[in-house]
Design brief:
This protein has a 5-stranded antiparallel β-sheet, with no helix packed on it. The model has no long low-confidence stretch (mean pLDDT about 85). It is an alpha+beta fold and about 170 residues long. It is built from 3 helices and 11 strands, in the order βαββββαβαβββββ.
Length: about 170
């Protein structure tokens, strides 16, 4: 059996959720659950300032696009391509190109959540990468990016550097 990959589908702007719902209904009607595994509209939580007050909102990361995890074959291609609101797959000509692991990483899809037990002000050592063996104090923690910000001494000046959770350990 072929391997399932993530594909990007271009839609009319503002139709992303409608396309998602239509594809999911078609999957159910045609019993394609084993071929089209997941349909998603990547969202990003943001804080907006309106009238002087902060408000938490979710915005589409890629307006006009829907991500689909599926096994590419004639049936699945036809179902997705002929869904109302879909203008086509992203790729040269009519040949869809699957996303690579590197392209999927920043989207936060299929990435395991790392449990991080450090706090602001903790002293850490960088275990790998360019800043290996550098000691710093945590100045910021970004759960979404799964990274910490530490200050390092560069040319006699404190400079903030963002480092992945997996590259630091507590001293």
């Amino acid at each position: 059996m072929a391997e399932a990959n993530w594909y990007v589908v271009h839609t009319y702007s503002g139709y992303e959720n409608k396309v998602k719902a239509n594809i999911e209904k078609t999957i159910e009607n045609r019993n394609l659950q084993d071929q089209i595994l997941e349909v998603t509209v990547p969202m990003q939580d943001m804080v907006e300032m309106k009238n002087g007050s902060k408000k938490q909102v979710s915005k589409k990361m890629f307006p006009g696009y829907v991500l689909i995890h599926m096994i590419m074959n004639d049936d699945t291609w036809y179902v997705v391509r002929n869904t109302r609101g879909v203008t086509g797959f992203v790729g040269p000509g009519s040949k869809p190109v699957p996303l690579t692991e590197e392209e999927m990483k920043p989207l936060g899809i299929n990435t395991p959540e790392i449990v991080f037990d450090l706090n602001m002000g903790d002293t850490v050592t960088v275990t790998s990468g360019v800043w290996e063996n550098t000691v710093g104090v945590i100045k910021g923690i970004n759960q979404n990016k799964q990274s910490v910000t530490i200050n390092v001494d560069m040319f006699g000046r404190e400079t903030p550097v963002e480092i992945s959770f997996t590259e630091v350990k507590k001293m």
